[in-house]
User: Fold this.
Amino acid sequence: MNKILKYKDLDNILLFVLCTVLFWCILKYLSTDMNLHIESIIWVNNGQSSYSPHFLFFFILNFLSFFSSNVTIMTLVAVLLLAISTLGKYVISKYMLSEVVLDSKFEYKVLLIKVISFALIFCFAIPDVYNFFVLEKMYLGRIPSVVWHNSTVIAVFPLAILLFWKQLKIFDKNYNSLWSKDIWFITLLVVLNIFVKPSFIFVYAPVTALFLVKDFTLEKRISHSIKFFPLFIGLVVLFLQYISIYYYQTGTFVSGKSSLTIGAPFEFVRNFIPAWYIPIALFFSFAFPIAAIYYHRDILKNKAFLYALCLTIFGILISAFIVEDGPRRLHGNFTWQNIICAYILLLSTATFLLPKLLSKNEDVKIKIILWTVFMLHFLSGILYLFKLYFVDSKLVHAH
Assistant:
């Protein structure tokens, strides 16, 4: 047995340890949404509030903390949960990449999959001179493929990626979906996504419905109709969650009633960057898939990439026009799906390009260009972590 296969779990252990240290530093030295989430659970335990309708992460954290109101205990449990979630994101990404290179004949293929999967965890929107030195921002106004400051987004990531991956298999016209285990598993994933953070389902439901309708045939109408079952259950749960949040204001931590409305185009993002800069921000957020489309037009025929691209476009449209009216208007709660979709799009792009990277028939210059762009995304993510800790933390503590 070769060394890579013999120590096949070593990368998982190293990533888990790295993420544990990283999340501990973020929770201890930065003021983020994660600290507020821990505080909100303490309010629940003290009877000052109730769980939000997307309660699952908070409840699990509370349960594993033995319903304690001790911040240190909750912080330790939160760090472990977030590290496990990130590890799950990494492991699922490895499996998706390995599916396109089934004949792992050479050790370097296994190692390459691990390297790309690891890099994907840290990939970020590429900064430019204007946003880094003039706006002095890396995150706000961009669509990165990772966040390190919001616990529910981090927690839902592996569930969203797994849902994307499993749904791809259901799109197969020849797939027999007559109440298969996959249909039930996808339904469970949809519900779990909603109960942790519903953001990804906002784009998953309509885009998936369009893909299913496109392949619908009368000859297999019963089998194809069953494929809509997870969407139906998801929409029912989303509707109940909507009523709970916006009618009963369940679990809200802000005073005043909120509702949904149509805002001015890109209203939220224009609070942080000028309107003229939005196309540039989008370009540098998705430089890797854009470059892949430019050099390999056939990527648009790849179902995984096309599905991810449609999810991403629909997510951007939602964030561009749907806003909350009331005290949460500037909270940007309809932008979270973009981060998940951005990661899935990068992962789908890497999955498509990996066989070409291994092929001796592909143009070497194109390979170098594409994977250099990918590395720029990765290095941008490392730069963002340094900025987050060494610059932004000083700003936090200055207050």
The two ends are 56 Å apart (CA to CA).
